[in-house]
Write a structure and sequence with these properties.
It is a single chain. This protein is α+β, with helices and mostly antiparallel strands and about 450 residues long. Among the domains are: about 170 residues, 3-Layer(aba) Sandwich (Glutaredoxin), CATH 3.40.30; about 100 residues, no CATH class. The chain is built from twelve helices and ten strands. Helix 9 packs antiparallel against helix 10 and helix 10 crosses helix 11. The radius of gyration is 46 Å and the shape is extended.
């Protein structure tokens, strides 16, 4: 006979049923958040007596069970004489709860230590833990007999929550209600039992409670090297710019490690602790520790990139010469004086023919540039049209001399010529360079159109 199954309906009816259930779940979630906020506002009572426990490393006091953290969730596991399965196994119900214990790294990152305690000897506890796969969970033997009665777990299981302030220990919460304990198992449910909770900035907490932004908490359980706010941390993973980058959740690991040299854990106890790595003994996060080595490597990488960027910016800011290439196809609007033109060997320039002395200029007693007869060549395609030659009346300019004032050169032959400087006068004004032949070119000062016929 097959088991009964839910009723089969259409998609629309199923969606409507889901909407009704989701609305009820939202209401329950709001009630759970209100309950967690009320736990944070519970008063606490100081633990006055000394209690002893035995662990793999020897006898410990109650403050030492915190492993350097400020909050402790201690589960009373029923494993003792008279329990079904003794001496090889503990309580079946307690074992089911232990199977649901979350990964301890995220609890440690919130400054929370989880541990179990039973009257059974350490040999029995270790043997059963290896069988069940709980070797990463601290499990202590209760050595002080009154402990169970003092904390309400002498007849039934229970979860006691403690807060430590130096060597003083306070009891903040106790949970033994069966149906409610069944909801405990995720890391968030464990957070909600403690006085500081998950320390998220969106939680409802009393004024002055330690909190950190979501970008600080959004990482994997083995990536927490900084202490949480409740342990004295500032709740930041990096400088503000890198923290903004981390909020996007990509490249977060690099940002965190680059800036992690600013946050060396300072545990409340004498022994510094690794904040998130479960199953490890407390160890300083300094010399000889892989966390410190990674910090040094990434800090060196960041320094190298910063120096390289500065060097590139310095070189990029240097001025770079960018000479203008002048040719028949690319004539600048403002043309240079003939004395500033390049020689014939410059790429893109036409060969310059031999120069001839301007006789008229010589008889006039002035020093004028020599003129050369340009060979008739075909103008390159796409060359801009030449400017119209100026009239004789407009071609009146002065040429500097050593002893006599400048004169206007009379018109001469009609052959088109280009000028090349023989003696570049230091005070001569800039004139337009001639365009490529056979187009007529502008006549330099001191000459008219007839001189170039």
């Amino acid at each position: 006979m097959s088991p009964a199954r839910p009723t089969v309906v259409g998609q629309a009816e199923w969606d409507a049923a889901l909407a009704v259930l989701t609305e009820r779940e939202v209401a329950v979630a709001e009630a759970m958040h209100e309950l967690a906020a009320a736990r944070k506002r519970m008063p606490m009572v100081r633990v006055e007596h000394d209690y002893q426990f035995e662990g793999p490393d020897g006898v410990r006091s109650l403050p030492e069970l915190f492993d350097g953290r400020s909050q402790l969730v201690l589960y009373r596991f029923y494993f003792e004489e008279g329990v079904d399965g003794w001496p090889d196994a503990g309580c079946a119900g307690c074992s089911s709860f232990a199977d649901g214990i979350p990964e301890l790294g995220l609890l440690h990152a919130r400054d929370i230590t989880f541990a179990m305690a039973s009257p059974a000897p350490q040999a029995n506890l270790r043997r059963y833990a290896e069988r069940m796969g709980w070797t990463n969970v601290p499990w202590y033997t209760i050595c002080t007999e009154r402990f169970s009665a003092d904390f309400g777990v002498d007849e039934w299981f229970g979860l006691n929550v403690f807060l430590r302030d130096g060597e003083a220990v306070y009891r903040t919460y106790f949970l033994q209600h069966g149906p409610m304990v069944q909801c405990i198992g995720s890391v968030w449910s464990m957070f909600s039992l403690t006085p500081y909770g998950g320390q998220g900035e969106d939680e409802d907490v009393p004024e002055g409670w330690p909190q950190a932004p979501w970008s600080f908490w959004y990482r994997r359980h083995d990536e927490f090297d900084e202490p949480p706010p409740s342990a004295g941390g500032d709740g930041e993973t990096a400088w503000p710019a890198l923290r903004w980058f981390a909020a996007g959740h990509w490249g977060h690991d690099l940002c965190r490690r680059v800036a992690s040299h600013r946050h060396l854990p300072t545990a409340p106890s004498a022994a510094p602790t690794t904040w998130a790595r479960s199953g490890e003994a407390p160890a300083p996060l300094r010399e000889g520790n892989p966390v410190t080595e990674r910090r040094i490597v990434f800090l060196a990488l960041f320094t190298f990139l910063a120096v390289g960027t500065v060097v590139i910016l310095v070189f990029a800011s240097q001025p770079v010469s960018n000479p203008t290439i002048r040719s028949g196809q690319d004539t600048p609007t403002t043309q240079a004086h003939p004395s500033a033109t390049t020689n014939a060997s410059t790429p893109g320039m036409l060969p310059q023919p031999p120069t001839e002395v301007n006789a008229e200029s010589a008889t006039a007693g002035t020093t004028t540039p020599a003129r050369t007869t340009a060979p008739h060549t075909t103008a390159p395609s796409g060359a801009p049209p030449a400017a119209a030659p100026p009239t004789a009346a407009a071609l009146t300019a002065t040429a500097p001399t050593a002893a006599a004032p400048t004169t206007t050169a009379p018109p001469t032959a009609t052959t088109t010529r280009t000028t090349a400087p023989t003696t570049a006068p230091s005070t001569a004004p800039p004139t337009a360079a001639p365009p490529t032949p056979p187009k007529e070119k502008p006549i330099p000062p001191g000459h008219d159109k007839q001189d170039n016929q």
